[in-house]
UniProtKB/TrEMBL annotation, chains A, B:
GO BP term, example: proteolysis
UniProt xrefs under SUPFAM superfamilies: Metalloproteases ('zincins'), catalytic domain
InterPro entries, A to Z: Peptidase_M32_Taq (IPR001333)
PANTHER family found in the cross-reference section: CARBOXYPEPTIDASE 1, METAL-DEPENDENT CARBOXYPEPTIDASE
One annotated GO molecular function: metallocarboxypeptidase activity
Protein name according to UniProt: Carboxypeptidase Taq
Length: 551, 551
């Protein structure tokens, strides 16, 4: 059925409720189409035969075109505009509830962000990214940064153009303010280049509402505490005996065990799937159709288990979305950092904890009874816990433990912000990277493939994304602390495998809240009465590892 | 990038080549989106978790809306209209090749068929179908035809409305002619009801260009030959010993064997997948991404093997589509009947043949070496062939052997044509069904769940579809005969497992031809110099089963 777009004057005679309802119809249609896109992405990584890469690219591109047209349609624009007029004239909170108001706010922001970009820029960016990824893969293979540098340079140019359009259109007011202040203090004229505040605009895409100066302070605090903690652990030069983790671990059994753990935690297999892919991820088509993946390595038991628990955390967030506001923007995750908090809360606060292994170690022993794993049978929970939580600085972020991981991120944040804002050049990246690795983790990088070429993020134009990993780990500690306060004897529940208690609390306090709040910081404040703060996080790490390493 | 639709006067100044190119751009976009729809359908049957039925329905409906809008866009209409003007004024074959001309013809027909239906009718049909399927399932379970009858009545009403719109708009000229002739001979005035020719219009959707009177003659010939053949086999009251097929067949081994057979035949796993679903089907997203399914039954070895070979035949057609005209209408299968000919050619002409089992029986023996299948090890190819080709009339179409299957279809054709054209009422269906079962197969139907309630087709509004199964089997025999003439020693190739010889011939002579011809009959005539004809088919069955049953 074709519904003709209404004219502005027709809309002006309608009630706020009717305008809102029309907005929801459009939002739901976009959500359905985005769900399809999510399924295609999952299929591509998990199921698709090799020869159909081209046809899948065509399908994704056709669908993206359709979604873009819906997201930027003038009929959607007219409804949003009329709602903006009403909002300027009266307080809509008498007619709409906070979730509905959030839907208007989020729809308006998304509409602006989509409509402000010229299609030439969107196309140039897609085209560059596909070339840049190829160049990066080659450069990493040969450990030859020079092969990647020109593409990074171009990505930064395009990202700056994108931010320019967004700032002009008012997508990120905070970024505009920073830029104006910097221009004024430098005495710049219109037309003079100045990229201050640009990182704020990029960060805002992944962590909406989060201010860069707060991020900066958090990360400075982290460095001050973690660099000496790591140095102390290093100086100890001691590791708990982990002979019981060596050898080969039957992949079918690993898979069965991971499925069991994931289901015990609360992953709903009637509303999702767990499969295998090269790089684990959580995606899918809907909160009732969450597709997560993991991977199993024959000689590394920990990778499959922690990977599964991590993705289960993401999946519980997706499966726990508000049913009342299903398929509207407010039901979506607040930010990447908050999403990561849910994966890390389960992976670390639960999955690396003694209560968790108190009930899970017997299941592990039950699963692996082969003579080759005899050593596992006699290990105690305390010993298992100490060895499972091994800390060891390394070059590669994705292999890092929870103590060193944060500094991998701080290093990337410092470099990418300086790059985008013009404080360093692309050529300076490797030197800076290596100096920081030495300073933060005490490691000498001898090859760029183990250094600044290890991650794909910059090649695909993801700048402002890395910080969300560490924001996630800080959120996780504060959210878990709030859960502990709210749930009597949480540790005892976890030790008995009663994970549903924690899951239910997260469902109510995080998952169903969706994007109601304006930032992750607001969410934490609403939950705990405190802003995001690295001190609880540092305290958690310090106390835990002081005991484990007897510091 | 938004491209504004061109005005009619702008188009009138463009070259035919340019108009054609614009048509292709639109056709390809539609094809990409249809590919997505195909993937969603596959996923729903094979991968989707149970709770996401609603979200998937929303996604499919949103996508269908998008595709419908593209298929009926006025910009597409303008291009087609301009091409029609040119075609009226000059012979376009000097500028476009036959494949390109077919693309114009097929696009015009699809555009008309889509634009002629009022959206209210499309919605009413979707809504009825979902209710009718529920009612049918319940009716079948309780063997209570009265519970389904009102829905069948409504489906027929809606189908007649649909045909009415199509006939008025000139989608099926043949149907209109039949109707006019009948009206004239009955002396009807405008406004008087007359449904003669309506079945022609419905058949045309599944078997384009095929005339109902030819179908009628083919089916009459079939009855004349097959009813006595079956009676003769029945009278013989003899079956070859098939003890070696009894017992339980390990499903994992069945799966491995089916995959092997499918790959040997030529299914390309780099351009497709083979999975398991409740009802076997071939679907997918693209000719480079063909998804087929089969099913395995513990106590029925034949079901999994023949099902896999059948779907492999469909898949080879899809994987063998023209690469030059990829994603345009001419690359698509000509008709359901021709598609079925490809599955049946492999399932029957090859998979039920002695040459095939000459090389495949040793592989089967190799796979199933358990003591419980000792009897298999000593069976000869001749004995296997005789027992594997068991004929036995039964109530259920999908379980029928190749001799009786055709009569199941003839019976349905006769009833559904009479229903749509108003010669019988819905209430008369069970009685007529049972009388025909007695006459054609010698069976007494005692319960409608084993009779007229067994198939889902009528519930979902598929009328005019059943005949394509039997047209497929007739095409298959004629196509296989043509292949035998073209390929020296084809039987010897098959006996050595050199299936690629036949596959290549089919690729070139059937698959890559796509929808170039106007009907399956044209295709056969082009290939063999003869029209479709049941006599070769009857000869094949008569000779084969006269030997097997020593008639």
């Amino acid at each position: 059925m074709t519904v003709l777009a209404k004219t502005t004057s027709e809309l002006s005679s309608e009630s706020v409720r009717s305008l809102y309802d029309q907005l929801v119809v459009k939002a739901k249609e976009i959500s359905h189409l985005q769900g399809i896109s999510g399924l295609l992405g999952w299929d591509q990584e998990v199921m698709m035969p090799t020869n159909s890469a081209d046809s899948r690219a065509n399908q994704l591109s056709a669908l993206a075109g359709v979604i873009h047209a819906k997201e930027t349609s003038s009929s959607l624009g007219s409804i949003l505009e009329e709602l903006e007029k009403r909002q300027a004239a009266q307080d809509l909170s008498t007619e709409l509830n906070p979730y509905e108001l959030a839907n208007i706010r989020l729809s308006r922001k998304a509409y602006k962000a989509e409509t402000l970009l010229p299609s030439e820029l969107v196309q140039a960016s897609a085209s560059l990214t596909s070339k840049a990824v190829g160049a990066w893969a080659q450069a990493r293979k040969e450990s030859d940064y020079a092969k990647f540098a020109p593409y990074l340079e171009q990505q930064i140019t395009l990202l700056r153009q994108k931010v320019g359009h967004h700032m002009k259109g008012g997508v990120c007011e905070e970024a505009r303010k920073i830029n104006e202040k910097a221009r004024a203090s430098l005495g710049l004229k219109e037309g003079d280049e100045c990229y201050k505040g640009y990182y704020q605009a990029l960060l805002d895409e992944y962590e909406p509402g989060f201010k860069v100066d707060r991020l900066h302070n958090l990360f400075e605090d982290l460095k001050k505490s973690l660099v000496p903690l790591i140095a102390k652990i290093n100086a100890k030069n001691f590791q708990h005996d982990d002979a019981f983790l060596q050898g080969e671990w039957d992949v079918t059994k690993q898979k069965e065990f991971s499925h069991r753990v994931s289901e015990r935690i609360g992953f709903d297999l009637e509303a999702g799937r767990l499969d295998v892919s090269t790089h684990p991820f959580t995606g899918g088509a809907h909160s009732t159709d969450v597709r997560m993946t993991t991977r199993y390595t024959l000689t590394d038991l920990k990778e499959g288990i922690t990977g599964t628990i991590h993705e289960t955390g993401h999946s519980l967030y997706e499966q726990g979305r508000s049913k009342e506001y299903v398929d509207t923007p407010v039901s979506a995750a607040l930010s990447l950092g908050v999403h990561e908090s849910q994966s890390l809360l389960w992976e670390r606060m639960v999955g690396l904890s003694k209560p968790f292994w108190t009930n899970t170690l017997p299941l592990l022993k039950e699963k692996f009874q082969e003579p080759s794993h005899e050593a596992l049978q006699s290990v105690t929970v305390d010993h298992f816990f100490n060895a499972w939580n091994r800390v060891e600085p390394g070059f590669i972020r994705v292999e890092a433990d929870e103590v060193t991981y944060g500094l991998h991120v701080v290093l990337r944040y410092e470099i990418e912000k300086a790059l985008v804002e013009g404080d360093i050049t692309v050529a300076e990246v490797p030197g800076l990277w290596n100096a920081k690795m030495k300073e933060y983790l005490g490691l000498e990088v001898t090859e760029d493939r183990l250094g600044c070429l290890q991650d794909t993020h910059w090649a695909v134009g993801l700048i402002g994304y890395f910080p969300t990993y560490t924001l996630g780990s800080i959120y996780a500690v504060q959210i878990f602390a709030a859960a502990k306060e709210a749930i009597p004897n949480l540790d005892e529940h976890l030790a008995k495998g009663e994970f549903h208690v924690l899951k239910k609390w997260l469902n109510e306090n995080i998952h169903q809240q969706g994007s109601l709040r304006e930032s992750g910081d607001d969410l934490i404040f609403g939950l705990t009465g405190q802003h995001l703060d690295s001190s609880l996080y540092v305290k958690y790490l310090t106390e835990k590892y002081t005991k484990i390493y007897d510091l």
